Amino acid sequence: MDPKCWHVELNDGHFIPVLGLGTHAPEEVPKIKAVEITKLAIDAGFLHIDCAHVYNNEKEVGQAIRSKIEDGTVKREDIFYTSKLWITFLQPDLVRPALEKSLKNLQLDYADLYIIHFPTALKPGEELLPEDEHGKVIFDTVDLCATWEAMEKCMDAGLTKSIGVSNFNHRQLEKILNKPGLKYKPVCNQVECHPYLNQSKLLDFCKSKDIVLVAYSALGSQRLKGWVNQSSPVLLEDPVLCAVAKKYERTPAQIVLRYQVQRGVVVLAKCDNEKQMKENMQVFEFQLTSEDMKVLDGLNRNLRYAPYQLLKASPSSLWSMPDMPVTPLQNLHEMLPILCPS
Ligand SMILES: NC(=O)c1ccc[n+]([C@@H]2O[C@H](COP(=O)([O-])OP(=O)(O)OC[C@H]3O[C@@H](n4cnc5c(N)ncnc54)[C@H](OP(=O)(O)O)[C@@H]3O)[C@@H](O)[C@H]2O)c1
Question: Which family does it belong to (predicted)?
Answer without folding.
Answer: Belongs to the aldo/keto reductase family.
